[in-house]
Batch of 2 targets.
Target 1
Amino acid sequence: MKYIVGIDLGTTNSVVAFAEADGDAPSIRIFDIAQLTAPGSVEARPSLPSFLYLPPAAELGDGLRLPWVKKRDYAVGLYAQRRGAEVPDRVVTSAKSWLSHRGIDRTAASLPWGSEDDVPKLSPVDVTARYLAHIREAWDAGNRGAPLHEQDVLVTVPASFDEVARQLTVRAAQEAGLPEITLLEEPQAAFYAWIDTNGDGWRREVEVGDRILVCDVGGGTTDLSLIAVSERDGALELERVAVGDHILLGGDNMDLALAYRVSARLAEKGTNLDPWQFRGLIQNCRAAKEHLLDDGGRDSYAVSIAGRGSKLIGGTVRFDIARADVEAGLIDGFFPRARLDEPLAAQQRAGLQELGLPYASDPAITRHIAHFLRRHGGSDAAPTAVLFNGGVMDATALRQRTLEVIGSWGDTVRTLAGADPHRAVARGAAYYGLARRGRGVRIRGGTARTFYIGVETAMPAVPGMRPPIKALCVVPQGLEEGTDVALPAREFGLAVGQPVEFRFLSSSSRRDDKVGAVLDRWDDEDLDELAPMAVTLDWEGHEGAVVPIHLQARVTELGVLELWCVSRDDEKRWKLELNVRAEKTT
């Protein structure tokens, strides 16, 4: 292992940062990713647009060639993004949002969503795997002798990703040739990047009692986290105290809102766009938003949308998107002035709906922030500082409005500045890789409860009585996330090849139980039994057997207990997972 590599697998753009695993003062750098920018043209850029283009047969050929592969029937990156404005039904966007969509089969070929039958389809997992494979191939081509699969790779995901989305991200990485990765929450990564940017000076920017809101608004999601500043033994400590829900609300929604606004203006002038042209308008609105909300002072953005068929040239629609339209539609629409006690707006839904992404019903990000803070602080919920992240929050006007609204809920709120919102997540992931080697500051996130697994007592069969259960402590209260658990070298029997039930218990009061402690008896007031896990653990040739195993455990950076049942000689391994962070442990 030579490098620590952080990958921000973003909804709109993916970024890679890296640092040397060894060295006295390793610096974190951005890896420029080689990609197609036009047919036959390859350039290295600091980010890889998260777009995948599936060209028709007539476009297949040398134009899609990359330095490491001669033939390819798809393209990812900047060229794919540009083609999205021209042939939107052949370009996959927002694959990350689809990967988190609980309402679809995330392993089924469904993207590009709503495209015509002659367009090949891929699953959200397939698309994610292709992004990661491209990153791996570009890295390997630029780092001979240090292939990516041999490095310490950390991939970031939204803090609110469900367990399935996390596992599918790991599966996509495996399909891309990265068998071992660590998942890290994006808001935490953004905060780590801020620490890295400020060096030792970060301690002068915060004080004991601070509640820092990490407001990460990206292309597809809004992620919110709270980090508290405390003191232990005279030194400042950071602790993540709350994580928000999965809010499918971000730059994609803004692009769509702006497209509807522009489309209505065109209709008033007698120009009606067909559905195909409207999808192209959405892609153009994404570019207009990025250009007109920056600090360049541009007043308009020129757009052209091609016609179809015989009207390809004559049917081209050309117009300008005004800066005033962008500001009025996006600032007031998505960041309205709101009260801290203002509830989320509920929309009455139609009984029959078209399948698609489950976007948040309330588009007001400021109301979602208020809702999050009320849940995790009540009337005194207002934060003292805000760290902005995500490409959307790169716009000065949006940051100012957000601070204005939050500041109206309590005392003056300040901004923690310094980190690049476009690259902070990747840089922070690399920094965390250094921090867990003792070369940086770590954010605390200890488990709130002690967790146990039930072990059936070995005893003769008694009519009408099930063997009693002992409780084996596997996670003590306060265990830091991202920590391996040293379980005692004791063997247990594991029933395989048949339906079995695993029982988990937890306690908020038994703070002194150590890993490996066995409770023969307990009071129901001390331990709460969680919902049992019913599963069949397969092992060909051992159906119905009870095989000797030992246990290995770790609590991941995402608050998931991974409990491994390992057979003798490590011949077979099974993994059980328990979310130890959720309000209702699952």
Note: The chain has four domains: 3-184, 207-248+358-435, 251-334, 450-579.
Target 2
Amino acid sequence: MKSLTVRLTALLGCVLLSTEGFSQASTAASPNYLLWSLIVVGILILVAAIISLSDNLLQIEAEKHGVNTEEDDFGLFPSLSSMFGKTAPKYAGKGKYHKLSKGFDIKLVGASTGVTDHAGVTRFAVKPQNFNGMSPIPKVVVEAGDEVKAGDVIYFDKKVPNVQYVSPVSGEIVEVVRGAKRSIAEIVILADKENTYAQHETPNVETASREDLVNYMMASGAWSLLNQRPFDIVPAEDAIPKNIFISTFSSAPLAVDMSLIAKENITALQKAIDVLTKLTPGKVYLGLDAKVEDPKSSVFGSLTGAEKHWFAGKHPYGNVGVQIHHMAPIANGTTVWTLGVNEMVTLGHLFLSGEYKTPRYVAVTGAGVTKPVTVKTYQGANVGDLVANNLNEGNNRIIAGDVLTGQAVEASEYLNFKDSQVTVLSEGDYYELFGWLLPINPRPSISRTFPAFLMPNFEFEGDTNTHGESRAFVVSGQYESVLPMDIYPQYLMKAIMTGDFEKMEGLGINELSEEDVALCEFVCTSKQPLQSILRDGLDMMQEQL
């Protein structure tokens, strides 16, 4: 503020000096209206600058202390958006509607057209590496040939032995696959035709203490359903989150419709919210999609006990990290928990019946699929079983997850712990001569060099070609145009690469997860692996604790 004041004062001084000749030419009896007008204007500019800076500093301090500046319109004066912006829908109520302007929707061919049963999926797996910070060689308590029920303990982290990781289905342990340095890559289960469940004695949610609920969740496998931010790790046993957040939808390309599983498990979802409210002294927040015709009457709109916020915009507006930023930002020194709809269903069933149930609706989508469909199955399903007899001819890449954050897998591999999507695209193993100069093939891009922006509803037949190689990491402003958060990701990434911890924290690393910068990576002219860089930064920050 001092610097700006000095600059304005200097500017006003220059203006006064430039009018000296005019002033001398004026007669003593004739007032210099131009001079006094410029003085008045300069004073008004100075006052406006001071007020504006004070307002910004007030909002910054409010965010540091966890005050929801967007909902409360925190500041000296109302924002222009609150006075002249789009009015929130009636169903949203005051301050519960968020219209995000930044983002980019990647529209691809191959969206799911229906639902089919899980009869063809026979193998499932659990993967210890799906959990950040897990020991590479956890203690596996089963071996090949053992029979397990859904909810039976499979392994636990030697560093945190009280937190159990359990089987998603019942069946026979057929293989314990080891990776590099004898790490545990996956434990494979040949599923029974009908699941049988391990029975747990469920505590009464209304009368049980928080300690009782925590102990039950750790022993039954439910603790692993929780995700702590920052760092995206399973919470410590004594962790208490400031708030808990659930996003009820995904805005990623070709994502599964979460209302499918919600309609069949509404009672379990409500029970999960009842449990979560006892685990935090703060609030449970529910992010809903305001793009649907009537969100309040949707299946998620009927849930009670959580504070509902409706979001509209473009991807990544469905990311829970983006929603946290606009509902109750993560203040330095605090932690929050997040869950997905699938994890909520499992948690709710566990407290309703004492059974660990992991139903999944998996969207098998993309241009490489003959018939895009949503498959009803269970957590950790075999990829080959999901896409059997449903792939187009040619060189395809199978992705566990969406095209932005997913992992390339072989048909013999398995979905990750939180995956609800398989995407199949053509391999982009070709070169384009002067492709940037002759943009012939249509492709999703934020650049207006390509005429795609003239066809907002056009669906592209995407492939895996990156259209260029890694190059100089230049400041372009592209990241900020697609990330609806008050964060400068370009400068954050450079702070991570240089190991500057203070800048990393100051630039907001604790608010981000890999999925939040995935779209930035897609639009990056420099072709930088931003998700990998961010994970390195989060790991470095966690090591400092």
Note: The first helix runs from residue 2 to 18.
